[in-house]
Design a protein that fits this description.
Helix content is 81%, strand content 0%. It is mainly alpha-helical. The chain folds into 2 domains: 1-36, no CATH class; 43-81. Helix 1 (2-16) runs antiparallel to helix 2 (22-35), helix 1 runs antiparallel to helix 3 and helix 3 runs antiparallel to helix 4. 1% of the residues are buried.
């Protein structure tokens, strides 16, 4: 599920570079929303694989990594202005 979501995101992002009008972009963004769910898929994977006694720490680490990635992305975008 994680690999499918990641692959779909990569393909759709590449296709977004080729759009010629707004309608195509909106369609691809809707498909992206329907097909990519990387965070939900990763959370499900971690919750299903990690032993119960470590699930809190594992899920906390995953959420910390996701928050750090979002924060670093915002910092890099702000830095370029």
């Amino acid at each position: 599920m994680v690999m499918r979501a990641t692959f779909a995101g990569a393909v759709l992002t590449a296709l977004m570079a080729l759009v010629t009008n707004v309608q195509q972009l909106v369609l691809l963004r809707m498909l992206q929303g329907a097909l990519t769910g990387t965070i939900a898929a990763a959370t499900t994977l971690v919750a299903g694989v990690v032993p119960k006694q470590y699930s809190g720490a594992a899920l906390g680490s995953l959420q910390t990594a996701i928050a750090s990635a979002v924060r670093s992305d915002r910092c890099w975008r702000h830095r370029g202005r």
